[in-house]
Amino acid sequence: MNLIGENSSGNTDDEPPSGSKFKPVSLEKISEFSGLHLDKIKEINSIYPIQIPEYYFSLIKKRGDGIYNQCIPSLEELSDIVGEEDPLREEINFHENAPKSVIHRYPDRLVLLVSNQCPMYCRFCTRKRKVGDPKKQKEWKEILEGINYIQEHKEIRDVLFSGGDPLMNSNKRLEKILKTTREIPHVEIMRIGTRVPCTYPQRIDKDLCDILKKYHPLYMNIHFNHPGEITAESEKACAMLADAGIPLGSQTVLLKGVNDSPEIMKELMQKLVKIRVRPYYIYQADIVKGTNHLRTRVEKGLEIIEKLRGHTSGLCVPHFVIDAPGGGGKIPILPEYLQNLTNEKVILKNYEGKTFEYIQTD
User: Fold this and answer.
1) Mind giving me the DSSP string for 70-116?
2) In order of start, what are the domains of the chain with their CATH numbers?
3) How many helices (H) and strands (E) does the chain have?
4) Distance (Å, rounded) from C-alpha 262 to C-alpha 127?
5) In tens digits, what is the pLDDT along the chain, a chain of 362 residues?
6) How many angstroms separate the most distant Cα atoms in the chain?
7) Helical ranges in the chain per DSSP H
């Protein structure tokens, strides 16, 4: 069944998801608050779009704090000579005939890009090259091309909706995406990758949750990076989603000046579990052009994992991964807990640095 041609324009459901509630901060206010000249703000904005919801802006306590560094632009974005536009090679089709709306990197699952818009354009974004450009807004026809591809590839059992942010679609369009994909017999689970409950929690309401809970099994990975993002508003949004039966996970990016300390990361992970969001990944920051000033060394991530494991409950310990440059996929990075492995025994190191011997058997 080919779906192209059925309501292919999608023009009737392009209204914003919740327009009256969404209010971005003006570039003038960002300039005044940051001390950066407005001309420089506009220059950065012309290359890497700037948008900050008033809600998220209100969470900043001072210049240079963990919230500020995620959303306020820096002149260093213009001088980065290290990063690449597309380090993960997402623009290259890993499978023949895959449309532009699909990233099919793994055997049984893929990413379907359903939006180029986000409530906030994070300064470290992996897709910094393409999000925020209204000329690149996803047409319904383009989304359907991706759904048709899923229909034709029966090995796909798991679909991750990403973007941009899928929840920036209107309720009408979002339900159309979920319903059309759910009707494909070999699709077992669907997932939504979003930062909306963190940066724009007012978008999560009863109407949205009533739509989402119709399409189980549906999972959601939310992007939280700092304990200051866990507020009454974000907690309420996560509670509504969890009460709708949606398992929630969190993906966190390790960022300099944001969460690059064991203490901050531990506080974040424990707060996430408390609001029913299971820590899933800590990502080493991708080598994206315009973001080098926010990248840490890999050793910092290993230190954080060592300070989490054994020092807090296992529920609070995510996987530390590097999304391999060149499109190699996510690779887990672990501290050296396994000291030696032979036919006779295994030598292990625990969280306290003590070693233990485990006897092998035939």
Assistant:
1) HHS--GGGTS--S-BS-TT-TTS-SSTT--TTEE--SSSEEEEE--S
2) 11-338 (3.20.20.70)
3) 11, 12
4) 27
5) 555 445 444 444 555 564 446 889 999 999 999 999 999 999 999 999 999 999 999 999 999 999 999 999 999 999 998 888 887 777 776 677 889 899 998 999 999 999 999 999 999 999 888 787 766 656 889 999 999 999 999 999 999 999 899 999 999 999 999 999 999 999 999 999 999 999 999 999 999 999 999 999 999 999 999 999 999 999 999 999 999 999 999 999 999 999 999 999 999 999 999 999 999 999 999 999 999 999 999 999 999 999 999 999 999 999 999 998 888 889 999 998 999 999 999 999 998 899 999 999 88
6) 71
7) 27-34, 38-47, 54-57, 68-71, 140-152, 171-182, 196-199, 206-212, 232-243, 262-274, 298-308
Q: Is the dihedral of CA 175, 176, 182, 183 positive or negative?
A: positive
Dihedral of CA atoms 261, 276, 329, 331 in degrees, nearest 10, equals 50
Name the token pair of 335: 């501290």
pTM (2 d.p.): 0.91
Which candidate, 184, 163, 166, places its Cα nearest to that of 175? 166
Q: Tell me which residue of 359, 290, 281, 354 sits closest to 317, measured CA to CA.
A: 281
Tokens of 311: 């020092």
Contacting residues for 274 by C-beta, under 8 A, at least 6 apart: none
Instruction: Name the nearest CA neighbour of 120 among 12, 203, 220, 20.
Output: 203
Q: Phi and psi (nearest 5°) for 213? A: -70, -5
Catalytic residues: 105-106, 109, 118, 122, 125, 127, 286, 323, 330
Distance CA 358, CA 114 (A): 49
The tokens describing 230, both together, are 């866990």
